[in-house]
Amino acid sequence: QNELNSFLWTIKRDPPSYFFGTIHVPYTRVWDFIPENSKKAFQQSHIVYFELDLTDPYTISALTSCQLLPQGENLQDVLPRDIYRRLKQHLEYVKLMMPSWMTPDQQGKGLYADYLFNAIAGNWERKRPVWVMLMVNSLTEADIKSRGVPVLDLYLAQEAERLQKQTGAVEKVEEQCHPLNGLNFSQV
Question: Does 94 map to a domain?
């Protein structure tokens, strides 16, 4: 483990500060591969800052509303007819397949395919194309099987709260949302 790239940088000061790069995947996919020096730095830290504060209800609400098209517009109004039709067919396919993608563990915890589909893809016709693209990319069998497991960032934020560490965020939702919403159709 000592030879692994830990994605941990130390800022030499007293006390030291650390910078750790995370990725947005279920933490169970990567946790066993995170070197001990990174875990130890997290445990020893008193204050932890994240990209966004995913434990703040305002953050979640703002992320949800920033994804929407302007009032009165629907995805059908902004996508070419053929792409919209193919997207709709794909989502119908995903909804049909989702029950077979669910794990027994998910089902045992009361997670139902219809609920999960609506949680991920609900209101998709009101979303901006860039957010629909990101949503579609997460509607795979592997991603569905890992639903219910927090992504690494959220897991660390929940751990920080549990350990009563002071937390914060380095970005505001608007700083992530506006650049994505500013992409034109060909960029998306």
Answer: yes
